[in-house]
Specification:
The complex is a heterotrimer. Chain A has helices at residues 30-37, 96-103, 113-126, 132-139, 149-164, 192-197, and strands at 11-15, 18-22, 56-59, 62-65, 78-80. Helix content of chain A is 29%, strand content 10%. Chain B has 19 helices and 32 strands. In chain B, the strands form nine sheets. A seven-stranded mixed sheet of chain B has the order 3-6-1-16-13-14-15. In chain B, strands 11-19-18-17-12 form a five-stranded mixed sheet, with helices on both faces. The radius of gyration of chain B is 28 Å and the shape is globular. Chain C is 26% helix and 26% strand. Chain C is built from 19 helices and 36 strands. In chain C, β22 and β23 (491-494) form a beta hairpin. In chain C, α7 packs across α8 (276-285). Classes of the chains: A alpha+beta, B alpha+beta, C alpha+beta. At the A-C interface, α2, α3, α4, α5 and α6 of A face α1, α4, α17 and β35 of C.
Chain lengths: 210, 833, 789
């Protein structure tokens, strides 16, 4: 491929509910367009072979690896990036999945976080009652090298319960993880003693439930 | 310190570089930058209705706001900012107070889309009476658009620009104001030294004269620019400002945030001259970033910069009592400063103006009243010289008049009145470090041929000298020479902090919040540190200001940086040498007395280390020391007595001019600037600062003037209408930096500005016998003055009393009768004779 | 130290200030930056593992429209002679690596040329048009092969620096071979120890090269403005980058500005300059314009890796399990250039003795050049390799003595007061207790090897295993910090600790709040900016919470002292009589003031203090005896696995890792670190290995499709992490790093569990199905591994 043989072609996309005109080269992927032309950097390059999920965006509400999708093939399908997720939430607040990730501190370096959030959002939209196994299977396409998986699972399960208003056992959603909804730094209130006391209990997220 | 190569390769990081706010990688606004474009008012005073709906939803347009909509988006609180009085909205709300005031803004990733949106916004204006003259503003009179004639004297509804008073700002917590809420009085500053009225009553002669100076444009070639970047916790504002720490305070109070939620960072500035002191467009950028949650860039165009901030237009009436020998026994000054539509820093400017009117003279009884008044003109603020040039033009102009009236040389009038060590100045402070005699000697010596003869005369300038107080000339050009002697204070009390970081390779980082705007402050700080520590300048770097990480500094202005920040840096270096000494003593197990640190070496007993070597063996990684400078002072609110300035910046100027009697064109042939520099850190930069000051002064003397347009708005909004001095206007400029290595460092950024206009005016008087009391000395004005004088008995009706002098030529103390404002006339009538 | 806050924030799950930015895609990384006027560089890399460069033809590339310039090794050689030209070689310890290959390539993937163009596409296209003429040389990929007498020599001469930047480094480097450093440890009389032993066991263990796989690849943006350089980079040690770039461009360190934002994963990959010297040189070449390089995933694999290892371990012991003597020979695959290997193998060397009480120890550890990606630090810093060896070895000893592996460890583990192999006495050491916690947590039934083996179904066998490890942190080391109290008494922690996901900025804010009494919500921690933030040695080696933490606590005390001093002056009382805590300044006279009131009344315009915290230590170059760490970090793991004998698939059924924390500052981040250690350990144990080969000796699995890192589904079905805090309570408890401690124990515990299930030990990682299946088959057909002598 040389550049002169690969000219820029104007293209109209729908990104986060906006119609945008971009001019990608033929080989440019949706990820290239999002990062280079639209400044939407929440989708991030990780492996460029669709293996890590850092570049996940929603295409008509289904997660795709934007690093594999030629921009020219996006067509009229609606693209949603992490930057556009808030618009799905109650104005002024984050999407419940985003909030759950915050409440569970489900991140370390956070590079993978948008991808996980979008994949989980798509799943919970499609399958509000998704089981832990389903969630695990669905999230297996997103990699977190820091290994925040335990808290990511807790966050997604918690988000599922928030979205449907109750836990698996049917008990009403109580604004976990630390008892106190809407959760906002209530963890802050927890003392070291409490922490030591409840070490290892499920809601603290160090135990992965079978 | 920026590498000079960056300046000649176009790589000096300026915030305006590029459209993305990164200034070529120097800043990191992050992705998603929005450009804010402003719609500005085309009327000067009106009630306002803005309809932004037609502009909404355009492709690419993220948001559009009127002033009211912006306030609503931020919770409905009124948004007001200002360094002293919080009276200015980022966007006009319900009322526009000057032509050019921003009334709406459009945001888009592509500036063109934003501009398109602006074209769709409709604004309707319901005109209010115009207030364009400070005196009228205070008497309640209003001006008819198109004329400057004062109509009516009783307060007309709507003539008070700010019916509701602005809240005080935390940026200047200490300042006390004297003002009537619900009037156009911004502040009234008072000096009461002795009993001026009594002394005037007893005086042998009392002369009353009125002087005016126009509004001016700073014309920093880099327009105002700011990029505000919000995150979940804080907002980072990259700004081309001289006052990062003050702007931080202003933004925090505007947004209702704790100080720690706001960070202000600057790069290099493309000129400032006072225009970039205190928040200007940063509040708008910050508000927009806050609302959109995205980085927002505000960059003004020249026309907008023209109406963002100006130099105060002033009118001063000076009543001076003198003895026959010229000794001044009493003085009473009443001055009006046109603050424009918003207070900005006017309340402090008039303080400096007030003590400025004392001049370099020892006056036992002096009262000064300076009024800053709101008018429907762009806000006036700090300007290189900070009110001293306006004051100097007045008091030195009167020095000339007094001399002529008494028939004594002006130099004698100066000599008998000079402040000398031990005498008490206008604020009652006992003077030390006075050098006015020397400066006057230099100035007068410079007048003698030879002194300036070194410089060749510009082409076309006639060499045949026509003496000053000569009979009506035969040639086309009259030549004359004039002198002025002035004094300027510096920001007091004043605090600066600095830190130095010593690295393992012996290189040094200076942490400072001093803004580099071309004055060479960073080079000066580098040199001071290099001297103090005995290391090479190339080993030293100087930080750019960042309120998060670089030490506190009041601001970069008032010619204070080399004094205050230089003091802090030298203190930090001294502390570093102390620390190296202690550490080496411990490391080598010898008493500290046997350790010597300096000259790049630390000698502990027998062993000796380079600085870096010591840091390495100690495994300290990096050594850091803090340094501080603080000056004391302040004036009594009731009497204006006290310490006005920690240093007195003393200067003299000598000008030689020709005046074309046909056209009235004044041409400056030669100018000699002398300043008391004390210890000079950077001779090259110091000289350039003085030369720059002279050029600025020449602009103000000969042509620069912001006038009133027929619509009541500012007439000049382009650099075509507002001519700055160019190379072709350049006279032969010579500079004397007086002082020696053992003297105190003095500021040089402004010192040489005040003498220029009065020296030129004195030279014109010398050439023509006419003392012109209004700036600038435009050809039409000069011509009118010449015609009005007897020597040029043209049929120009005159008014105002002619005062005979020993000189053959008759001169008048007012030279443009047609334009004599009523207020000034009234002033004459009021003054005792 | 006593908290100066009302309520101590340390130990609490305080809210993470930047949490929101992380979830909305606004968390800044350098990879998101593309400055105006920025040029993009693309690298041409060698396909050959070892070859001479005969010629590089850049004509076509230079002719491509939009290409600014092309840089090759020849240019570097030429520039080196110019007075202001860049120094062409770099390396944290030995400057043995050319910025671009000069004359010779030493591993497949080594950069040979760089194309700088107006955009990436143009640069790529032009790079593709560059042709290189290679003369292929024989290559070696493993350290043992590289030490063979007839092995090709990678470096005719190993250069050293006059200024040694690593005070802890023990350097034995000789030309003529492939050994770039040799570390030795001699303790007691090993031969006597062996002579006195009832039994002697010797085994060899191997681990492959592995890659860090930070999801954010290396990315660097450099601008050269006259005699100043401005660098943005995704790095974990900004000041190490600064020194290197200063050396490369021959500038004072003060003229090199290095800025770092959040780092999208590092794990050791970003601890030393790898990309920065190259980008700095490219920026120098185009004077004034920013140059940006962002690596692809494949290039990431060619940038840095974890050392492969061969560990030959021989131990003499009594019948009761008492260990009398140990001799270890460790060969480390350093890759083509020294990078930090000379240092890594020192830690890997002395740590090979294990956490055991052994009177006589002899260790020889060799960093060996190989024709692979250069090896560097990797989460665990050489401990995972030796722990894999010594913990399998320990189980083999237990098996030999028919003892319960946990019981044997109880008999032999170091206890407080015992001396480690370097002679340093261990204290605050709780490994036996950690082992019990881990063991009990997975329901360990006491008994010798194989006694926990269960056949859950035909061909499905379960087994359990434990492992215990210790780890040191870089010593001596130094951190400096400045605490800046602004006019309103808000606090900025001006430090250069890098946020690499460990939560440093939150944790340091907690420590600063506790140390100064400024409320946590008014404390901010800076991002590193070498122009203004305080110098720090490195963000690695699990040292930040410890070293920077102590520096912050000290500075906090100092700041309160300053406040007391100023208050004393203001109130006219001795500073000693002033009590400064919890944002209040009180003394017997008067009601007292807030910090802010004091600052405004003294018109100080704020207050800044700085502190240096340095740890001491160092080893004798001949005997390796001395102080290696302020504290010994330690952890124990217990695992239960299920092996499918038909497929060789290993499933980790249950796992617990217990780490000694001393004092936990932010429980959630601490857990995240410990859980991350598990994910790393599992990947190393079951799947991760870089495979070199093919015709050119290239890396065969340089994509995440072929090189599999664990996903959420690859974690143990059930696992827990525990952090044991000082039994004496948090007051005065010492902070122990957690970022790596648990990870080395995981592969070892899994290995021992698999061994129990299989009835034999597999001596090489990873335990991927092919290998496990083969071993199982081999096992069924008789002979076992290991040799008894």
């Amino acid at each position: 491929m040389t550049v002169d043989r690969d000219p820029r072609l104007p293209l109209c996309l729908v990104v986060n509910d906006d119609e945008v005109e971009v001019r990608p080269r033929g080989h440019h992927t949706l990820l290239d367009v999002l990062r280079r032309e639209l400044d939407l950097v929440g989708a991030r390059p990780g492996c460029t072979v669709g293996a890590c999920g850092s570049c996940t965006v929603l295409l008509d509400d289904e997660p795709v690896s934007s690093c594999l999708l030629p921009a020219q093939l996006v067509g009229t399908r609606h693209v949603r990036t992490i930057e556009g997720l808030e618009s799905l939430a109650v104005p002024g607040s984050l999407h419940p999945v985003q909030q759950a990730f915050i409440d569970h501190t489900a991140f370390q370096c956070s590079y993978c976080t948008p991808g996980f959030i979008l994949t989980a959002t798509a799943l919970l939209t499609r399958e509000p009652d998704a089981s832990r196994e389903r969630i695990q299977a669905e999230l297996a396409g997103n990699l977190c090298r820091c290994g925040s998986y335990v808290k990511i699972m807790d966050a997604v399960l918690d988000a599922r319960d928030r979205l449907r208003g109750h836990h698996d056992d049917g008990s009403p959603y109580d604004g976990s993880p630390y008892g106190g909804a809407p959760h906002n730094g209530t963890a802050d209130q927890q003392t070291a003693d409490q922490r030591v006391a409840d070490r290892g209990t499920p809601d603290r997220g160090t135990v992965a439930q079978p | 310190m920026s590498d000079p190569r960056a300046k000649v390769t176009g790589r000096l990081p300026l915030l305006g570089d590029g459209l993305d706010g990164t200034a070529g990688g120097a800043a990191d606004p992050g992705p998603g930058l929005l450009h804010a474009r402003l719609l500005t008012a085309d009327v000067a005073h009106a009630r306002l209705a803005v309809d932004t709906t037609p502009a909404r939803g355009l492709p690419g347009v993220t948001a559009v706001f009127s002033g009211r909509e912006l306030e609503a988006a931020l919770g409905g609180r009124p948004l007001r900012f200002g360094p002293v009085l919080r009276d200015q909205p980022p966007l006009a709300v319900e009322r526009v107070r000057y032509a050019g005031e921003p009334v709406a803004v459009a945001l888009a990733a592509d500036p063109d889309d934003a501009d398109e949106a602006l074209r769709r916004i409709t604004v309707t204006y319901d005109p209010l009476p115009l207030v364009t003259d400070p005196i009228a503003a205070l008497t309640g009179a209003t001006t008819d658009v198109g004329t400057s004639a004062v109509t009516g004297t009783s307060a007309v509804a709507g003539t008070v620009l700010h019916p509701r008073d602005g809240a005080p700002s935390a940026a200047f917590p200490e300042i006390r104001l004297r003002r009537g809420a619900g009037t156009n009085l911004v502040n009234h500053f008072v000096i009461r030294k002795g009993d001026a009225p009594g002394a005037l009553a007893r005086a042998e002669h009392v002369f009353t004269d009125t002087f005016t100076t126009p509004a001016m444009h700073h014309a920093a070639l880099e327009n105002h620019v700011a990029v505000a970047v919000p995150d979940a916790q804080r907002i980072v504002v990259w700004s081309a400002t001289q006052t990062p720490y003050k702007v931080r305070v202003q933004l925090a109070e505007l947004l209702g945030l704790p100080l720690d939620r706001v960070v202000v960072r600057t790069l290099h500035l493309g000129g400032a001259f006072g225009a970039k002191c205190y928040a200007k467009i940063e509040p708008l950028a910050a508000c927009l970033a806050r609302v959109t949650g995205r980085p927002v860039r505000v960059c003004l165009d020249r026309a907008q910069t023209f109406t963002t901030i100006t130099r105060h237009a002033t009118r001063a009436t000076i009543e001076t009592g003198v003895r026959a020998d010229g000794r001044i026994t009493a003085r009473r000054v009443t001055a009006w400063f046109d603050a424009g539509a918003y207070a900005d820093i006017s309340p402090r400017v008039i303080k400096n103006g007030a003590y400025g009117y004392g001049g370099p003279y020892d006056i036992a009884d002096i009262w000064v009243d300076v009024y800053a008044a709101y008018t429907n003109r762009p806000p006036a603020g700090a300007f290189r010289g900070y009110a001293s040039p306006q004051a100097a033009f007045a008091y030195e102009g009167q020095t000339e008049l007094i001399a002529r009236r008494l028939g004594v040389p002006a130099s004698q009038v100066r000599r008998v009145n000079l402040l000398r060590d031990g005498s008490r100045n206008v604020t009652g402070e006992t003077m030390t470090d006075c050098h006015y005699d020397t400066l006057l000697d230099v100035a007068e010596h410079a007048l003698a041929d030879g002194a300036l003869a070194g410089g060749a005369l510009p082409d076309g300038a006639p060499d045949a000298g026509l003496g000053g107080d000569a009979d009506p000339p035969v040639g086309q050009c009259l030549r004359g020479r004039g002198v002025a002697l002035t004094v300027k204070g510096t920001n007091t009390p004043s605090v600066s902090q600095a830190a130095v970081l010593l690295n393992r390779d012996g290189s040094l980082q200076i942490l400072t919040s001093t803004v580099e705007m071309g004055q060479g402050a960073h080079l000066a700080l580098t040199r001071l540190a290099a001297e103090a520590l005995g290391i090479e300048e190339r080993m030293i770097s100087v930080s750019l200001p960042d309120t998060d990480t670089t030490p506190y500094d009041q601001q970069t202005s008032s010619s204070r940086s080399t004094i205050a920040m230089g003091g802090a840096v030298r203190d930090a270096c001294a502390n570093l040498l102390g620390l190296l000494t202690r550490l080496a003593a411990d490391h080598c197990g010898v008493p500290a007395e046997q350790v010597r640190a300096g000259g790049g070496q630390v000698r502990a007993g027998a062993t000796s280390y380079g600085y870096g070597e010591l840091v390495t063996v100690l495994r300290a990684g990096q050594l850091r020391c803090e340094g501080a400078y603080a000056s004391q002072g302040g004036l009594d609110h009731e009497t204006g007595q006290g310490i006005a300035s920690s240093r007195w910046h003393q200067a003299s100027g000598s000008a030689e001019v020709t005046v074309d009697v046909e056209t009235g064109r004044v041409r400056v042939l030669r100018y000699h600037a002398a300043v008391w520099a004390g210890r000079v850190v950077n001779p090259v930069e110091a000289r350039m600062q003085v030369e720059g000051a002279v050029l600025l002064g020449l602009g103000s003397a000969l042509g620069e003037e912001l006038g009133l347009g027929p619509d009541g708005g500012q007439a000049q909004r382009t650099l075509l209408d507002y001519r700055l001095p160019a190379l072709t206007d350049l006279p032969v400029i010579t500079v004397d930096l007086l002082g020696g290595p053992d003297d105190e460092i003095h500021g040089l950024g402004e010192t040489a500005v005040p003498p220029v206009a009065p020296a030129v005016a004195a030279a014109v008087a010398d050439a023509t016998g006419v003392v012109i009391t209004d700036l600038p000395l435009r050809p039409d004005r000069v011509l009118a003055a010449l015609r009005a004088s007897r020597g040029f008995a043209a049929a120009v009706p005159t008014s105002g009393a002619a005062v005979p002098t020993s000189g053959a030529a008759v001169f008048r103390d007012d030279v443009h009768p047609l334009q004599l404002p009523a207020a000034q006339r009234a002033e004459h009538e009021r003054t005792p004779r | 130290m006593t908290g100066a806050g009302t309520v101590r924030t340390a130990g609490r799950r305080v809210a993470v200030g930047d949490a929101r930015d992380r979830t909305v895609g606004r968390f800044p990384y350098v990879i998101d930056m593309v400055p105006s006027g920025c040029l993009h560089a693309v690298l041409v890399r060698s396909p050959h593992a070892h070859a001479e460069i005969r010629a590089v033809d850049t004509t076509a590339a230079r002719a491509t429209p939009g290409v600014v310039t092309v840089v090759t090794g020849e240019d570097l050689r030429r520039w080196a002679d110019q007075p202001d030209g860049p120094f062409p070689y770099y390396g944290p310890v030995l400057p043995d690596r050319p910025v671009l290959a000069i004359g010779r390539v030493r591993f497949a993937g080594e950069p040979v040329a760089a194309v700088i163009a107006r955009d990436v596409d143009t640069a790529r296209a032009a790079a593709a048009a560059i042709t290189v003429d290679y003369a292929v040389l024989p290559a070696v990929f493993t350290p043992d092969a590289a030490m063979a007498p007839d092995a090709p020599v990678l470096h005719d001469h190993v250069p050293t620096r006059d200024v040694m930047t690593f005070p802890d480094l023990v350097l034995h480097t000789e030309d003529g071979g492939n050994v770039c450093n040799h570390f030795r440890l001699r303790r007691g009389d090993v031969d006597a120890g062996f002579a006195a032993s009832d039994h002697i066991l010797a085994h060899e263990f191997r681990t492959p090269q592995q890659q860090h796989v930070p999801l954010e690849p290396h990315v660097t943006i450099a601008t050269v403005r006259g005699a100043e350089v401005d660098i943005w980079t995704s790095a974990a040690s900004p000041f190490t980058v600064r020194s290197q770039v200063a050396e490369t461009l021959r500038l004072p360190e003060s003229r090199v500005r290095v800025r770092v934002l959040n780092v999208g994963g590092a794990y050791g990959a970003k601890t030393y300059p790898r990309l920065e010297p190259l980008v700095a040189v490219l920026a120098w070449a185009v004077r004034g314009r920013p140059v940006r390089v962002e690596l692809t995933r494949a290039e990431e694999f060619a940038t840095v890796a974890r050392h492969s290892s061969v560990v030959r371990i021989r131990t003499g012991f009594r019948a009761d399990g008492t260990l009398l003597a140990r001799r270890v020979e460790v060969l480390w695959g350093a890759g083509a250039y020294a990078d930090i290997s000379p240092r890594t193998i020192k830690n890997g060397g002395y740590s090979a003795a294990g956490p055991y009480d052994i009177p006589n120890v002899s260790i020889d550890s060799y960093a060996v050049y190989t024709n692979t990606t250069p090896s560097g630090g990797f989460r665990g810093y050489a401990i995972p390799q030796v722990a894999w060896a010594y913990e399998n070895h320990t189980d083999l000893i237990a098996e030999h003595l028919d003892l319960d592996p946990a019981d044997l460890r109880h008999r032999t583990l170091l206890r407080p007061g015992d001396a480690f192999a370097t002679g340093q006495v261990v204290e605050d050491f709780h490994l036996a207790a950690l082992l019990d916690t881990a063991r009990d947590r997975i329901g360990w039934k006491p008994g010798p090897a194989a006694s926990r083996r269960v056949v859950v179904a035909p061909g499905l066998v379960r087994g359990k295993g434990v492992a215990t490890i210790l780890k040191t942190t870089v010593t001596p080391s130094t951190s400096t910090v400045a605490l800046k109290l602004d006019e309103e008494a808000n606090l900025t922690v001006v430090c250069s600790t890098v946020e690499i996901g460990q939560g440093a900025r939150t944790v340091l804010a907690q420590l600063a709040a506790d140390a100064t009494g400024v409320p946590l919500h008014r404390v901010h921690v800076t991002y590193p900016d070498s122009a203004v933030t305080a110098w720090d040695q490195t963000t690695s080696s699990s040292r930040s919470t410890l070293m920077m933490g102590v520096a912050v606590e000290r500075a906090g005390a100092k700041l309160r002292g300053e406040l007391a001093r100023h208050a004393g002056t203001l109130l006219g009382v001795p500073a000693a009589a002033v009590d400064v805590r919890a944002d209040r300044i009180r003394c017997d006279l008067g009601p007292g003031l807030s910090y802010a009131e004091l600052l405004s009344r003294t018109k100080l315009g704020g207050l800044t203090v700085s502190e240096v915290h340095a740890s001491d230590g160092g080893l004798d170059p001949e005997t390796g005896q001395g102080v290696v760490t302020p504290h010994f970090y330690h952890a124990a793991a217990a695992a239960e696995v299920e092996v499918d004998l038909e497929t060789g698939a290993v499933r980790v059924v249950d796992l617990h890792v217990e780490s000694y924390a001393g004092r936990v500052i932010h429980p959630t981040f601490a857990e995240l670190q410990c859980e991350g250690n598990v994910a790393f350990g599992v990947g190393q144990a079951l799947s991760e290995a870089m495979v070199w080969g093919g015709e050119t000796g290239a890396l065969l699995n340089d994509s995440l499709l072929d090189y599999r890192i664990p996903s959420v589904r690859d974690l143990p079905e059930t696992f827990t992490v525990g952090m044991t805090e000082d039994p004496a309570g948090p007051e005065g408890a010492r902070i122990h790093g957690l970022g790596e401690t648990g990870s080395p124990a995981v592969p070892a515990a899994i290995g021992n569990a698999v061994a129990e299930a299989l009835g034999t030990h597999i001596h090489e990682l990873p335990l991927h199905p092919e290998r496990v299946w083969a071993t199982a088959r081999h096992r069924q057909t008789g002979s076992g591994n290991g040799t008894t002598g």
